[in-house]
Write the C-alpha cells for this entry.
Amino acid sequence: MSTAIGASRERIWRALTTPSELIRWNDQIVSLVEPAPGYPQIGQRSRWRYAMGSVEVMATQTIRALDVEQRLQSEFLLGLFHFDETYSLHPDRTDASRTRVSLKMTASNSIPVVGGALDRFEVRKLTTDLIDARLRSVQHWCENH
C-alpha cells in the first residue's frame, strides 16, 4: 500500500527514523525501552513498548536494510506477531512537491494466540489495517509538523 505525502523525502525519513518523532505520530508506540545509539543502523536492535489495543507488549525491532531517504526494512517481534516491514520513499510522479511512501508488511500465514490461532485471512486483515493506520499517521504528522 502507498500514499502521496505533501513533504520532502528528508522530512518523511526523519519521521520514520527519529525515535522522539516515531513516538509522537505512531499511536501504537508507547515508549522506547532500549535505545539504540545512532538509530537506525543495519543489524541494530531496539526495544519499544507497544500498545495492542488496551494491552502493552514489548516489541523488538531489528534493522535489516536501509538506504537513507529511500528504504527502511525492519524485522519486528511484537508479542507473538512476527513481521517484516519495509518503507520505501520515491518522488511522486504527478506532483514534485509530494513524496510517494509505500509500506509493505510480510507476516506468517497464521499467528498463535491464546486458545487458537489467527488464520491467513485474519492476518491479512490485521496487517492491512496496520499499514493503513501507519501510512495515514505518518502522512498527517509530516504534513502538519
